[in-house]
Structure formats: structure tokens, C-alpha cells
């Protein structure tokens, strides 16, 4: 079933994957409640359904404030309250069935695998190093390819 009119924020999603609004944003910290509220308000204005946030600077304990305010799934990798941290937000109107999560212990990425409308997807929120670190990206690509069942070294 496909609709031509976009659903409201809370209606179940019945569109093609290409109709899902996706946003990626380096928020440079969400520890202050006012900044978190402003960020989530802007995401709502944009009508984004899948959101990748980088540099959240939140600890595992502080993520409760995000979970209490975001209507849907909150998938994260934390480091400490001064650096890094990434989040994937999936709105409850998106029927994302999560099957696997891989978190970087250094809080630089979170990789998820799941399905939307019977299509398998990998969602990755990434905050890469700001210096030349080829090994980081090689390891990341190998992790994603292993999740997909590919071996990039053989290709």
C-alpha cells in the first residue's frame, strides 16, 4: 500500500524507502537540556524519520534524556561526556526491525542492521577521526562488509 500524502509524525509508515527523510548532524554536544530540546525540535520541523547524530558527548546514563524525548528507537555508542558519541534515531512510524548492533568502544560509530518493509539495511552513524587514520576506515569497512557477508579483501 502506497500513499501520496506524507503521514503525520505518528502514523505508521507505508511509503517506499526513498520517501523516508534522513538527516545527519554533528551536534557538537547534547549535554545541556536546552540544546537537546532545540535539536529534537529542529529534527521534528525537518520531519526527519531516521537521524544520525555525531559528537553527542553523552554518557550511557545521560542518554535517558534523549530516550524520554524521542518517539522511537535510540541506538548509540558513547565514549565520555567530553568527546565523541554517536546516535541513530529511528522514528516510531518507521517499521525498523533491529537485528544487530555493533558499537565502537571509542564512541566513533554505531552500526545497525535491520529491516524496513522487508528490505535489509545497515544504518551507520559515524564520527571519524579528524586526522589521517587509514586503519580506522579500513577496520570500519571490514566490519560493515562482514555484517553484510562480504569480504572486501577478496574483491
From TrEMBL:
Matches recorded under InterPro entries: AP_endonuc_1, Endo/exonu/phosph_ase_sf
PANTHER family (alphabetical): AP ENDONUCLEASE, DNA-(APURINIC OR APYRIMIDINIC SITE) ENDONUCLEASE
Protein name: Endonuclease/exonuclease/phosphatase domain-containing protein
Molecular-function annotations in GO: DNA-(apurinic or apyrimidinic site) endonuclease activity; double-stranded DNA 3'-5' DNA exonuclease activity; metal ion binding; phosphoric diester hydrolase activity
Positions in coiled-coil regions: none
Cellular component terms per the entry's GO annotation: nucleus
Required co-factors: Mg(2+); Mn(2+)
Binding residues for Mg(2+): 26
Gene3D superfamilies named in the record: Endonuclease/exonuclease/phosphatase (3.60.10.10)
UniProt KW Transport keyword: no
Biological-process GO terms, alphabetical: base-excision repair
Cofactor: binding comment: Probably binds two magnesium or manganese ions per subunit.
Amino acid at each position: 500500500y502506497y500513499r501520496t500524502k506524507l503521514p503525520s509524525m505518528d502514523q505508521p509508515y507505508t511509503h517506499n524507502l526513498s520517501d523516508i527523510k534522513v538527516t545527519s548532524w554533528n551536534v557538537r554536544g547534547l549535554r545541556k537540556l536546552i540544546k537537546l530540546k532545540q535539536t529534537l525540535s529542529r529534527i521534528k520541523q525537518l520531519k526527519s524519520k531516521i537521524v544520525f547524530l555525531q559528537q553527542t558527548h553523552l554518557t550511557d546514563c545521560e542518554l535517558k534524556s534523549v530516550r524520554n524525548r524521542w518517539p522511537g528507537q535510540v541506538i548509540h555508542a558513547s565514549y565520555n561526556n567530553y568527546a565523541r558519541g554517536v546516535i541513530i534515531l529511528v522514528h516510531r512510524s518507521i517499521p525498523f526491525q533491529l537485528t544487530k548492533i555493533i558499537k565502537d568502544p571509542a564512541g566513533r560509530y554505531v552500526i545497525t542492521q535491520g529491516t524496513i518493509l522487508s528490505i535489509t539495511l545497515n544504518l551507520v552513524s559515524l564520527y571519524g577521526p579528524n586526522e589521517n587514520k587509514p586503519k580506522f576506515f579500513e577496520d570500519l569497512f571490514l566490519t560493515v562488509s562482514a555484517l553484510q557477508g562480504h569480504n572486501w579483501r577478496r574483491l
